[in-house]
Amino acid sequence: MMNGLTPFLALSFLVVALAFAFAAYLYVWVKKKPTKNKTIIDVSELIKKGANTFMTREYKILAMFALGLAAVIFLLLPAPIWSAKAQISKNIYMAVSYLIGTALSAVAGKIGILVATLSNGRCAEAAQKGIKPAFLLGFRGGAVMGLLVVGCALLGVSAILWIVGDASILLGFSFGASSLALFAKAGGGIFTKTADVSADITGKVELGIPEDDPRNPAVIADNVGDNVGDVAGMGADLFDSNVAAMVSALVIAQSLGSGFLNTAMVFCYAFLGLLASIIGIATARIGKNGTPTKALNSSTYVTTAIFLALSAGATALLGFSWRIWGASATGLLVGVVIGLATDYFTDDTKPIVKKVAHASSSGPAFTILSGTAYGFISALPAMIGIAASALIAYKLCEPMGGSFPIFGISMAAVGMLSTVATIISNDAYGPIVDNARGLAEMGGLGEETIEIADELDSAGNTVKAVTKGFSIGAAGLTVISLLGAFMTEVNDAIRAAGGAIEDLITSFDIMDPTVFFGILIGAAIPAVFSAMLILGVDKNAQRMVAEIHRQFKSIKGLREGTAKPDYDKCIDIATTGSLRELLPAGLVAILSTVAVGFIGGPKAIGGFLLGNIVSGLLLSLFMSNSGGLWDNSKKYVESGHEGGKGSEAHKSAVIGDTVGDPFKDTAGPSINTQITVVSLVASLLSALFVSFNLFG
Fold first, then answer.
1. Percent of the chain whose predicted confidence (pLDDT) is above 70
2. Per-residue CA distances from 619 to 40, 530, 546, 676 (Å)
3. Torsion of CA 512, 513, 518, 519, to 10 degrees
4. Which of 660, 656, 654 lies closest to 625, judged by CA?
5. CA 418, CA 197: separation in Å to the nearest integer?
6. Which of 410, 447, 533, 619 has minimal Cβ neighbours within 10 Å of its Cβ?
7. Please, what is the Cα angle at 660 between 659 and 661, to 5 degrees?
């Protein structure tokens, strides 16, 4: 099979090299842009230093965790090394593959920090020349991360399969990416929202000072948080989603036993998606009467159209199945629909945001009630989209028989994530321009420049919400296909143990008490996981608020602006608290999966994954969208509507935003990584669950 696959792997490496070269060009282009304002240079350096300090301390903790888990993987997977069926070389491959996945995921986060901290100050100063040059600088800074993250994902998957030849080993690589992303997203999310909530409550609500006023001790920690949460965390998150989609498709493709063609299709669509993204990123501009939001959306639409054309041409030329292409195209188009639906509920030019802003004039209770209600409603279109794409993909491939229907669903996930380099570029643009807005204010660049930065930032908030909706939708399709990969691994283990054909698992009957046992526990885990993360933000923000109060009381001249606050103390509080809360929530998700598997076996795990997927997707969509909605409602009021800054509506909207902060940037986007992690744990431990369970 590998001989036939070699040209596709070679082309994957070629497109990755092209993506890396284009990213290097964009990096040099951004770096050459001038930055002259001394205050902006100094503050940018503080942000960079704080972000790197946090990342270094976080990665040291995660490195120890990863090394310990790699040792466990070596001892147990794919089979315990002391068992008669063990192949030591496979255990070594699995452990090394896991470590490579964690390392590349960490690189994805580090790349994001490097580029974002390079771009933010330059973007602020570019805003003095107008919205077009500032937009292009912010977007191209984000594009460096998008290209490198997706390039690393495709490089890792291609290289491991080329060397090992066994797609099941890639489950270790994907688990490494997912587990690090889970903890990085959780830690970064707690950091960023600790600072953001504290800065908003003490600054806007208590003191009535501007959002990025340098007198506020939490303001630098807030800007650092944009990088460690929205850049590094989301970069690792989408790296994980991309890898998981490819790996689930490859595991199922190899089990189909029809030569190399299905495996080749996965790689072909993946590198064509990256190629389409390169073209889409290169053409992104604000048109004559355009806006930042339109420019960001147009780059996505261009990438989508190019990928559909390229993948259709490859399908016709290489003899791939048109049914599989249809499944992939369905996933891609549904991803666009999910993005549009999210945009409708979170864009401040749309009616929903305006309705919540208007409700805020009646008090914070109405801000919370209306935002919560619309957040729940917003989950419906995405849930329908995920369900419809899975159903269409399944039905399209059902006539092909065997495991092809599940393979179709996995290819829908690959299709949805085919444009992920562009999506990450859009997402990384958000925190870059958010930082730029703060730097423009702290650097005294004037109201006109701040207004331009505000417009860029508003577009960034909307696009970040769209990205979260997209990544959650992609995770939904990915974990459905991972459920198929889990069944494949379980059935392989049953055959290896000498089981009969009737012992093989083809479905999960929800009327089976063992399956239902798993469903109920799996459905509860996302809620507990979210609660632990939100409580982490709550406890840490209370510590920081107390520190801000202390500084305003004890530092003479701070309120008047004649003395400087102790920024480092707030950064340290955010760092220490987030690292303290980093592991527990993730371990609850992983250990509960292991416990259910050993208690109830593969059937219970099947139910566990079903409950986890449905509950997780609903909660993730609700929290991400309601948080984005509250954030842009606040910005809509601050732009002069409903009484503007300082009004009752503004105070209410700020409270709504502080509630929404841990929803949209901590718990919400972390859940989609959590459901991927537990799905991979289930697949990796499937043979152990088959051989031992309490009620088996």
1. 97
2. 39, 9, 31, 15
3. 70
4. 660
5. 35
6. 447
7. 95
Residues 6 or more apart whose CB falls under 8 angstroms from that of 632 comprise 346, 347, 348, 353, 458, 461, 462, 465
628-652 in b/e form (b: 16+ CB < 10 A) is bbbbbbbbbbbbebbeebebebbbb
- Alpha-carbon Rg for the chain in angstroms: 24
Supply the pLDDT for residue 580.
84
Residue among 338, 330, 415, 339 nearest 382 (CA):
338
Say yes or no to pLDDT of 110 above 60.
yes
How many Å apart are CA 173 and CA 153, to the nearest integer? 10
Distance CA 81, CA 312 (A): 45
The CA distance from 481 to 247, in Å, is 10
674: left (phi over 0), alpha (psi -120 to 50) or beta: alpha
Burial 568-604 (b: 16+ CB within 10 A, else e): ebbbbbbbebbbebbbebbeebbebbbebbbbbbbbb
Number of H helices, E strands in the chain: 21, 0
Inform me whether the pLDDT recorded for 441 exceeds 90.
no
**542: burial class by Cβ within 10 Å (0-12, 13-18, 19+)?**
middle
pLDDT at 166: 87
Q: Which of 504, 573, 491 is nearest to 540 (CA)?
A: 573
CB 633 within 8 A of CB 360: yes
Arithmetic mean of pLDDT over the chain: 88
At residue 441, what is the residue type? E
Structure tokens at 530: 């979210």
Tell me the three state secondary structure of residue 222.
helix
pLDDT at 234 over 80: no
- DSSP state string for 369-418: HHHHHHHHHHHHHHHHHHHHHHHHHHHHHGGG-TTHHHHHHHHHHHHHTT
Angle made by CA atoms 41, 45, 48, in degrees to the nearest 5: 140
Cα angle 109, 111, 114; round to 5: 115
Lowest mean pLDDT among 238-247, 316-325, 385-394: 238-247
Predicted confidence (pLDDT) at residue 696 exceeds the cutoff of 60: no
Q: Which two tokens stand for residue 276?
A: 């389409």
Whether 617 shows a pLDDT value over 70: the answer reads yes
- Rounded-to-5 percentages of helix, strand, coil across the chain: 85, 0, 15
Say if CB 536 and CB 190 are below 8 A apart.
yes
Helix (H) or strand (E) holding 134, with range, is helix 131-164
What's the confidence (pLDDT) of residue 2?
Answer: 55
Its pTM stands at 0.88
Task: Give the list of residues 6+ apart from residue 690 with CB closer than 8 angstroms, or none.
Answer: 490, 493, 494, 497, 601, 602
Q: How far apart are CA 483 and CA 462, in angstroms?
A: 32
On whether the CB atoms of residues 611 and 592 are closer than 8 A, the answer is no
Q: What is the pLDDT of residues 171-208, one digit of tens each?
A: 899 999 988 888 888 888 888 889 888 888 888 777 77
Going by pLDDT thresholds of 50, 70 and 90, the confidence category of residue 367 is very high
Residues near 83 by beta carbon (within 8 Å), at least 6 away in sequence: none
